[in-house]
Design a protein that fits this description.
InterPro entries: NAD(P)-bd_dom_sf, Sc_DH/Rdtase_CS, SDR_fam. Belongs to the short-chain dehydrogenases/reductases (SDR) family. The chain has 253 residues and is α/β, with parallel strands linked by helices. It has eight helices and nine strands. The strands form two sheets. The chain has a seven-stranded parallel β-sheet with strand order 3-2-1-4-7-8-9, sandwiched between helices. Strands 5-6 form a two-stranded antiparallel sheet. Helix 1 crosses helix 8 and helix 3 packs parallel to helix 4. The longest helix has 26 residues. The radius of gyration is 18 Å and the shape is globular. The N and C termini lie far apart (40 Å). 43% of the residues are buried.
């Protein structure tokens, strides 16, 4: 798909991987809308890249529909969706304080998996109305999973399950939306320099980087953006989950 003037939506675009994707798409010529809960930072990033911002709870039907309406009014129907919004609280199934509360598990599934699907379904409805290109393509959806979908560490039950669901959704959604000319792919990142990671002590960051086979450094948000760029550009990349992880395979803890 071409980038120039294509309306793009990035959830979680106010920081981290989402910000990296938003900046990449804007630099390529897209009209970018950032959806995030952090209004102050989201508006700042949107202004810097010449886009628009909409505060959005991705797991809420009404909030998501309102955000899509705002983006559509500003730029037209969505042609590219990048799902980066997510949460990653850690908790053991059986911890020192007892069994994990069910609502803790449910919240992560709600944001990471249901939120991803909520955005995908609303974007697909808009993409299906767009004029197709020579290949019949109308839109591209890129979801974000995690290496935790494959090697969940101790304390990641909810997070791993939610990201495993995103991985499993990829091929199914690609097959179902193929008749509408919509491609669906997923990126499964490893260790990246996100705001949460940047807040950790330098020795902790280095310790984590030392677990990476090569290169032995944390990924950069702009490198996540590079993968987004390639997934949009390559017309036959569809239904695929790509690990972006320096060949990392997570240990149990």
């Amino acid at each position: 798909m071409e980038f120039k003037n294509v309306p793009a939506i990035v959830t979680g675009g106010a920081s981290g991987l989402g910000e990296g994707a938003a900046r990449t798409l804007a630099a390529a010529g897209c009209k970018v809308a950032i959806f995030d809960m952090n209004a102050e930072r989201g508006e700042q990033v949107a202004a810097e890249i010449g886009g628009v911002f909409a505060q959005c709870d991705v797991a809420s039907t009404s909030s998501a529909e309102a955000a899509f309406a705002n983006a559509r009014e500003a730029h037209g129907p969505c042609g590219i969706l990048v799902n980066c919004a997510g949460i990653a609280p850690a908790a053991k199934i059986l911890g020192r304080d007892g069994v994990m509360p069910l609502e803790n598990f449910s919240k992560v599934i709600e944001v990471n998996l249901i939120g991803t699907f909520n955005m995908l379904r609303l974007a697909a409805a808009e993409m299906a109305q767009r004029e197709p290109n020579a290949d019949g393509e109308r839109g591209v959806v890129i979801n974000t999973a995690s290496v935790a979908a494959y090697e969940g560490q101790i304390g990641q039950a909810a997070y791993s399950a939610s990201k495993g669901g995103v991985v499993s959704l990829t091929l199914q959604a690609a097959r179902e939306l193929a008749r509408e000319g919509i491609r669906v792919n997923t990126i499964a990142p490893g260790l990246f320099m996100t705001p949460m990671m940047a807040g950790m002590p330098e020795e902790v960051q280095q310790s984590l980087a030392n677990t990476l086979p090569f290169p032995k450094r944390l990924g950069k948000p702009e490198e996540f953006g590079m993968m987004v760029d390639q997934m949009v550009r390559n017309p036959i990349l569809n239904g695929e989950v790509i690990r972006l992880d320096c060949a990392l395979r997570m240990a149990p803890k």
